[in-house]
Protein backbone atom coordinates (compact mmCIF):
# COMPACT_ATOMS: atom_id res chain seq x y z
CA UNK A 1 0.00 0.00 0.00
CA UNK A 2 1.45 3.34 -1.05
CA UNK A 3 1.84 6.26 1.35
CA UNK A 4 -0.93 8.06 -0.53
CA UNK A 5 -3.25 5.07 -0.04
CA UNK A 6 -2.36 5.01 3.66
CA UNK A 7 -3.11 8.74 3.94
CA UNK A 8 -6.59 8.08 2.49
CA UNK A 9 -7.33 6.28 5.78
CA UNK A 10 -6.32 9.34 7.83
CA UNK A 11 -9.01 11.56 9.30
CA UNK A 12 -8.21 15.24 8.73
CA UNK A 13 -10.39 17.71 10.63
CA UNK A 14 -10.15 21.47 11.13
CA UNK A 15 -10.92 22.42 14.74
CA UNK A 16 -12.84 25.53 15.77
CA UNK A 17 -9.64 27.33 16.84
CA UNK A 18 -7.98 26.67 13.46
CA UNK A 19 -5.82 23.75 14.59
CA UNK A 20 -5.66 20.64 12.40
CA UNK A 21 -6.55 17.29 13.97
CA UNK A 22 -5.28 14.16 12.21
CA UNK A 23 -6.31 10.65 13.26
CA UNK A 24 -4.44 7.65 11.87
CA UNK A 25 -1.79 10.03 10.57
CA UNK A 26 1.01 8.82 8.30
CA UNK A 27 4.37 10.32 9.23
CA UNK A 28 7.74 9.92 7.51
CA UNK A 29 11.28 11.30 7.72
CA UNK A 30 11.08 11.67 11.48
CA UNK A 31 13.79 13.58 13.33
CA UNK A 32 12.31 13.94 16.79
CA UNK A 33 15.83 13.81 18.24
CA UNK A 34 16.90 16.87 16.26
CA UNK A 35 20.02 15.19 14.89
CA UNK A 36 22.11 16.88 12.21
CA UNK A 37 20.94 16.30 8.64
CA UNK A 38 22.36 17.24 5.26
CA UNK A 39 20.00 20.24 5.30
CA UNK A 40 20.58 21.27 8.95
CA UNK A 41 24.16 20.27 9.68
CA UNK A 42 24.26 21.72 13.20
CA UNK A 43 21.17 19.75 14.25
CA UNK A 44 18.64 20.88 16.80
CA UNK A 45 15.72 21.03 14.36
CA UNK A 46 13.08 18.49 15.43
CA UNK A 47 10.72 17.72 12.57
CA UNK A 48 8.74 15.10 10.71
CA UNK A 49 6.70 15.06 7.50
CA UNK A 50 2.95 14.52 7.54
CA UNK A 51 1.64 12.69 4.46
CA UNK A 52 -1.47 14.29 2.96
CA UNK A 53 -4.15 13.25 0.52
CA UNK A 54 -4.32 15.24 -2.70
CA UNK A 55 -7.57 16.90 -1.57
CA UNK A 56 -6.18 17.93 1.83
CA UNK A 57 -2.92 19.05 0.20
CA UNK A 58 -4.85 21.35 -2.14
CA UNK A 59 -6.95 22.76 0.72
CA UNK A 60 -3.94 23.48 2.93
CA UNK A 61 -1.95 24.93 0.04
CA UNK A 62 -4.82 27.31 -0.77
CA UNK A 63 -4.78 28.45 2.88
CA UNK A 64 -1.07 29.23 2.62
CA UNK A 65 0.46 26.10 4.15
CA UNK A 66 3.88 25.04 2.92
CA UNK A 67 2.80 21.87 1.09
CA UNK A 68 5.15 19.92 -1.15
CA UNK A 69 4.57 17.36 -3.88
CA UNK A 70 7.05 14.71 -4.94
CA UNK A 71 6.33 12.81 -8.14
CA UNK A 72 6.47 9.01 -8.09
CA UNK A 73 9.87 7.54 -8.86
CA UNK A 74 8.56 5.25 -11.58
CA UNK A 75 5.80 5.63 -14.11
CA UNK A 76 2.47 4.77 -12.52
CA UNK A 77 3.64 5.47 -8.96
CA UNK A 78 1.45 7.73 -6.85
CA UNK A 79 2.79 11.21 -6.11
CA UNK A 80 3.58 12.08 -2.51
CA UNK A 81 1.98 15.12 -0.86
CA UNK A 82 3.38 16.23 2.48
CA UNK A 83 4.05 19.14 4.81
CA UNK A 84 6.86 19.46 7.35
CA UNK A 85 5.78 19.70 10.99
CA UNK A 86 8.04 21.38 13.56
CA UNK A 87 8.38 20.02 17.09
CA UNK A 88 9.32 22.91 19.38
CA UNK A 89 10.12 21.62 22.87
CA UNK A 90 11.81 24.84 23.94
CA UNK A 91 8.82 27.17 23.50
CA UNK A 92 6.45 28.52 26.14
CA UNK A 93 3.90 25.82 25.37
CA UNK A 94 5.74 22.62 24.44
CA UNK A 95 3.64 19.93 22.75
CA UNK A 96 2.15 17.00 24.62
CA UNK A 97 3.96 13.88 23.41
CA UNK A 98 2.62 10.50 24.51
CA UNK A 99 4.07 7.09 23.68
CA UNK A 100 1.50 4.33 24.24
CA UNK A 101 2.72 0.80 24.81
CA UNK A 102 1.32 -2.55 25.92
CA UNK A 103 3.19 -5.16 27.96
CA UNK A 104 1.60 -8.33 29.37
CA UNK A 105 -1.82 -6.90 28.55
CA UNK A 106 -1.17 -3.74 30.57
CA UNK A 107 -1.46 -0.55 28.54
CA UNK A 108 0.58 2.46 29.58
CA UNK A 109 1.10 5.99 28.37
CA UNK A 110 4.52 7.60 28.75
CA UNK A 111 4.93 11.36 28.44
CA UNK A 112 8.13 12.05 26.52
CA UNK A 113 10.43 15.07 26.91
CA UNK A 114 13.50 16.45 25.16
CA UNK A 115 15.65 13.62 26.57
CA UNK A 116 13.37 10.71 25.66
CA UNK A 117 11.61 11.87 22.48
CA UNK A 118 14.40 10.55 20.25
CA UNK A 119 13.15 6.99 20.70
CA UNK A 120 10.27 7.84 18.35
CA UNK A 121 12.81 7.86 15.51
CA UNK A 122 13.67 4.18 16.00
CA UNK A 123 10.54 2.37 17.21
CA UNK A 124 7.98 0.63 15.01
CA UNK A 125 4.89 2.81 15.02
CA UNK A 126 1.40 1.34 14.79
CA UNK A 127 -0.85 4.42 14.97
CA UNK A 128 -0.45 8.19 15.23
CA UNK A 129 -3.04 10.79 16.24
CA UNK A 130 -2.05 14.44 16.47
CA UNK A 131 -3.09 18.06 16.66
CA UNK A 132 -1.14 20.63 14.66
CA UNK A 133 -1.17 24.37 15.22
CA UNK A 134 -0.74 26.54 12.09
CA UNK A 135 1.70 29.42 12.46
CA UNK A 136 2.03 32.10 9.80
CA UNK A 137 5.54 33.39 9.23
CA UNK A 138 7.15 35.84 6.83
CA UNK A 139 10.53 34.25 6.22
CA UNK A 140 10.19 34.89 2.50
CA UNK A 141 8.40 37.33 0.22
CA UNK A 142 5.46 34.92 0.17
CA UNK A 143 3.81 34.40 3.54
CA UNK A 144 3.54 30.71 4.40
CA UNK A 145 1.91 28.74 7.18
CA UNK A 146 4.04 26.17 8.99
CA UNK A 147 2.59 23.45 11.16
CA UNK A 148 3.77 23.16 14.76
CA UNK A 149 3.02 20.05 16.78
CA UNK A 150 0.59 20.71 19.63
CA UNK A 151 -0.12 17.13 20.77
CA UNK A 152 0.72 13.66 19.50
CA UNK A 153 -0.24 10.17 20.64
CA UNK A 154 1.89 7.38 19.18
CA UNK A 155 1.10 3.71 19.71
CA UNK A 156 4.13 1.47 19.50
CA UNK A 157 3.65 -1.66 17.39
CA UNK A 158 4.07 -5.00 19.13
CA UNK A 159 7.27 -6.89 18.42
CA UNK A 160 6.47 -9.31 15.59
CA UNK A 161 10.05 -10.40 14.92
CA UNK A 162 10.38 -14.18 14.94
CA UNK A 163 6.59 -14.46 15.19
CA UNK A 164 6.46 -12.35 18.34
CA UNK A 165 8.51 -14.93 20.24
CA UNK A 166 10.21 -12.20 22.32
CA UNK A 167 7.32 -9.76 22.67
CA UNK A 168 6.67 -10.81 26.29
CA UNK A 169 10.13 -9.70 27.41
CA UNK A 170 10.30 -6.18 28.77
CA UNK A 171 13.16 -4.01 27.59
CA UNK A 172 15.22 -2.80 30.53
CA UNK A 173 15.79 0.92 30.75
CA UNK A 174 19.46 1.68 31.20
CA UNK A 175 20.92 5.11 31.98
CA UNK A 176 24.14 6.61 30.61
CA UNK A 177 26.22 4.97 33.35
CA UNK A 178 24.93 1.54 32.35
CA UNK A 179 22.73 1.03 35.42
CA UNK A 180 19.09 0.03 35.28
CA UNK A 181 16.97 3.10 36.00
CA UNK A 182 14.49 3.31 38.85
CA UNK A 183 11.63 3.75 36.34
CA UNK A 184 11.66 0.01 35.74
CA UNK A 185 10.88 -0.64 39.40
CA UNK A 186 8.40 2.19 39.93
CA UNK A 187 5.55 -0.33 40.11
CA UNK A 188 5.39 -2.92 42.88
CA UNK A 189 6.03 -6.30 41.23
CA UNK A 190 4.97 -9.69 42.53
CA UNK A 191 7.80 -11.66 44.13
CA UNK A 192 7.85 -14.09 41.19
CA UNK A 193 8.24 -11.20 38.75
CA UNK A 194 11.33 -9.63 40.33
CA UNK A 195 14.08 -9.91 37.70
CA UNK A 196 16.94 -10.50 40.17
Give an overview of the whole structure.
- The protein is mostly beta strands.
- The protein has helices spanning 3-7, 54-63; strands at 11-14, 20-23, 27-31, 47-52, 67-70, 80-86, 96-103, 106-111, 125-137, 144-156.
- Strands 1, 2, 3, 4, 5, 6, 7, 8, 9 and 10 form a 10-stranded mixed beta sheet that branches.
- It is globular.
- It starts with a helix and ends in a 40-residue tail after the last strand.
Quick summary of this structure?
The protein is mainly beta and 196 residues long. Helices cover 8% and strands 36% of the residues.
Order of helices and strands: HEEEEHEEEEEE
CATH hierarchy, class:
Mainly Beta
Structural class: mainly beta
Radius of gyration: 19 Å
Task: Indicate the topology.
Elements: H1 3-7, E1 11-14, E2 20-23, E3 27-31, E4 47-52, H2 54-63, E5 67-70, E6 80-86, E7 96-103, E8 106-111, E9 125-137, E10 144-156
Parallel strand pairs: 6-10, 7-10
Antiparallel strand pairs: 1-2, 2-9, 3-4, 4-6, 5-6, 7-8, 9-10
Amino acid sequence: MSLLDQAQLSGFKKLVNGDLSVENAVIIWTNFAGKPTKFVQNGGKRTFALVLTETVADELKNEGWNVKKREGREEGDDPLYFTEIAVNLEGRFPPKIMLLTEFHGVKSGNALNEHSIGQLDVIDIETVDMIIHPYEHNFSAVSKIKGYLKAIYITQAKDENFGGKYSDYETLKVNEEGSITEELYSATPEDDDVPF
